[in-house]
Amino acid sequence: MFYVAAILICLSVAHTGGTHLLNPRFPRPKGPALKPQYSYDTKYFTQPVDHFSFTRTDTFDQRYLINMKYFEGTGGPIFLYTGNEGDITMFCDNTGFMWDIAPKFKALVVFAEHRYYGESMPYGKDSYKDPEHLGYLTAEQALADFARLITHLKASIPGAADSPVVAFGGSYGGMLAAWFRMKYPSSVIGSLAASAPVWQFEGLTPCGSSYSIITEDFQKGSPGCETYIHKSWDLLTQMGQTAAGREKLSSMFSLCSPLNTTTDVATMSSWLLSTWFNLAMVNYPYPASFLEPLPGWPVKEVCSLITASSNVLEGIAAGAMLYYNYTGQAPCLNIEESAVSSLGDLGWSFQFCSEMAMPSCTDGVHDMFPLQPWNLTTYISQCKSTWKVTPRPYWILQQFGGKNITAASNIIFSNGLLDPWSAGGVMESLSDSLVAITIADGAHHLDLRSSNPADPQSVIEAREQEVQIIREWLQDYYSSL
Ligand SMILES: *[C@@H]1O[C@H](CO)[C@@H](O)[C@H](O)[C@H]1NC(C)=O
Ligand SMILES: *[C@@H]1O[C@H](CO)[C@@H](O)[C@H](O)[C@H]1NC(C)=O
Ligand SMILES: *[C@@H]1O[C@H](CO)[C@@H](O)[C@H](O)[C@H]1NC(C)=O
Ligand SMILES: *[C@@H]1O[C@H](CO)[C@@H](O)[C@H](O)[C@H]1NC(C)=O
User: Fold this and answer.
1) Is there a catalytic annotation at residue 15?
2) Domains of the chain from N-terminus onward
């Protein structure tokens, strides 16, 4: 594990002729959930490893979480969360919206785990061993898992045979929810795709847009904050040139391992960059613990520390300290933390290197980050050397229609304007039934979280609209029976 992880760091901090390649990850909470907030039964369903061939007959058990408490049978709806790149229990815990509305709809609640994550390992411990075993980690296979699971649930649960299914998902899970409705319209009557950057692909969205959004978030957090961060990269690199400078940096940031080389300093840069990216994603209005325990509006909190300092790097260190040590429990800060360190991250790294080729870049002009262009050639060659696979940057467009998706129907694309990933989202309605909902004060899929007294009006209204649309889908379904 550690060995592979060490190699993979080059993917996020890649140095090729001075070029860094960015591979921002969606927020994937550290799982599994320690104390589940909601009650459910854990079940397993046997799936073929390969849905699309008749010659490979291996199977595996897909985990799903199910709650039948609100379901009154006789065709009541099924709410299905299309699991993304992590342990499903964490997504279950952080998708309170489904739990909040399930009683009103008398819905059966199901959270389906994505293959190759959590406990749903097609080849057990060998799942990540080599490309041969990993090759079945694709969105298409995952969607087919969800479709078969639905068929199984409907066939086995009394009263569910005619139940309409509504899919929910956030982030990559939102992309899956949207694609599920496109590819399996007979399995699901509609989908809520929250913060789903379905257009963050080659040629559809400028690669730097999400970083411009982060920069605006920090500027709003405290004017001048973005300038401090902008200045910090060169200062960090300069100071990191000498052993004395690296020692000073290590103590200023209370690092767990001292910086020994300029490569370590580059790792640290990349760690800070992903820290700010993550912070922008979880800029929620109330204290939450999705990635790290944080206060409400954490960007504002971090920025006020940054701008209060007379020394740029000390301000940055104070900001990083708030992000990683809000609870006061961190003995030191670990710059390897954002590097690929767990199966969830490994899985996403593989997906990024196969079909999820989501271009990402910074230029230091339209954003507060160092110059890191997107270079398709570099990306492909790094993926080949890391995973022994050749990415297909245009495959997702071919497979899921790119921007030409008006033949689809009944999908809600919700996006928070504070969320970096809204850059690749569907921000305007494409038809009467492909509805875009924007949430002015929302970070990454805020609408999927449970309601909270500190919720801004914009998310309250978004959720009301979502409930109303889901109600209409259900009415249409029942009146067509
Ligand atoms: C620097 O070297 C020390 C001693 O070998 C090691 O313990 C530490 O992990 C190194 N730091 C980094 C960031 O790799
Ligand atoms: C984290 O906060 C606690 C409480 O303020 C403090 O004692 C500790 O030194 C901090 N950790 C680091 C790495 O500075
Ligand atoms: C991408 O990187 C390759 C190899 O380092 C280089 O030859 C090429 O010019 C770069 N392309 C762009 C568009 O920068
Ligand atoms: C999408 O449709 C537009 C207009 O019809 C067309 O120009 C474009 O090539 C299509 N793109 C794809 C990926 O099919």
Assistant:
1) no
2) 1-215+342-481 (3.40.50.1820)
